[in-house]
Amino acid sequence: MSSYYCLMAGLPDIALNGGGQRAQSVAGFKEVLSEVLTEADKKLMFYFYLRYDCLNLVKLLKSPEAEISLLGNYCREQYEEVMESVREKSFNARRYPSFFATFVGDYACNKDKKGYFPEDAILLEYYKYALKCPDQMLRQWFEMNLNVTNILTALIARKYDWNVADYIQGDNEVCEMIRQSSARDFGLGLELDYVAELMKIVECEDPVEKEKRIDAFKWMWLEDKTFMDVFSIDAVFAYMCKLEMLERWEKLDVETGRETFRQIIENLRSEAQVPEEFKR
Fold it and tell me: Which phi-psi region, left, alpha or beta, contains residue 186 (left: φ > 0; alpha: ψ -120 to 50)?
């Protein structure tokens, strides 16, 4: 695995609570990485950018003239090639992820169905694809994100007396436990050390603060995973994920947001213990 000492040592020290140095943009960092990463590590960063490709593909299926993000791996012409090749039954699975073809083919049949959300559908396929990534930490990151989404969804569904199983996406062990368990923590307390924290987050009534708490949890997860490995491609990937979070937060009220994030981190650190009822 390559070491990126010069790259990482020269980056601004960003902080969740806004106390760090001013960060560069995700687009700017992507351009830097295109010049310094090895070919093998570029293939790992492909998985980060692929999420933007998925959302771009949905946008263009809905509206061919839609504005798309430039953070994906592909350009507009390539998305158009994907859609055309599916229609012509000439899709090249060596050039593009195979789930692109399946999704594009299914979209025409499902787009007018009630309860069909194409963004959710393609992102589920994205996570399934990313879970086959050759890098262990990246696989853990994608699995954690899928698990967190399903656990939070299940907790909300249970709160409103909805059928939990109807809202769970995926087929891993965590998904099956959520579908089958009636336990307060879905029987996951001993399997996943972050379930208790998610149960606290879902009780937050303010949707914006809830989203901030989720991002704060993910930020800390990345810090823990790369604390002793600060110059690897894993650290590079983690830094990119943090930049993405910061860009999203910059769209919020900066003045009130900084204090909120500081309080979130302090609360997460002080509440990191597992409740007694989950130890029994």
Answer: left
Which of 102, 130, 158 is where one domain is finished?
130
Please give the average per-residue pLDDT across 210-232, as a whole number: 93
Write out pLDDT tens, residues 2-37. 789 999 999 988 877 666 666 789 999 999 999 999
Which residue do the tokens 């204090």 mark?
259
Rg over CA atoms, the chain: 20
Question: What are the CA-CA distances from residue 126 to residues 204, 206, 210 (Å)?
Answer: 28, 29, 24
Q: Percentage helix, strand, coil, to 5, in the chain?
A: 65, 0, 35
Q: Nearest 5°: phi and psi at 128?
A: -60, -40
Give the number of domains in the chain.
2
Please tell me the distance from the alpha carbon of residue 181 to that of residue 151, in angstroms, as a whole number. Answer: 12
Q: What DSSP string runs through 219-246?
A: HHHHHHHHTT-TTSHHHHHHHHHHHHHH
Q: What DSSP character marks residue 146? A: H
Q: 3-state DSSP call for residue 114?
A: coil
Q: Is the dihedral of CA 85, 87, 93, 99 positive or negative?
A: positive
From the list 36, 72, 46, the residue with the least C-alpha distance to 57 is: 72
CA–CA distance from 18 to each of 143, 162, 222, 224 (Å)? Answer: 28, 38, 17, 19
Q: Are residues 189 and 246 part of one domain?
A: yes
Closest listed residue to residue 186, CA positions, set 146, 154, 157: 154
Q: Would 18 be classed as within a structural domain?
A: no
pTM: 0.87
- The domain of 36 spans 24-130
- As a whole number of angstroms, the distance between CA 144 and CA 220 comes to 13
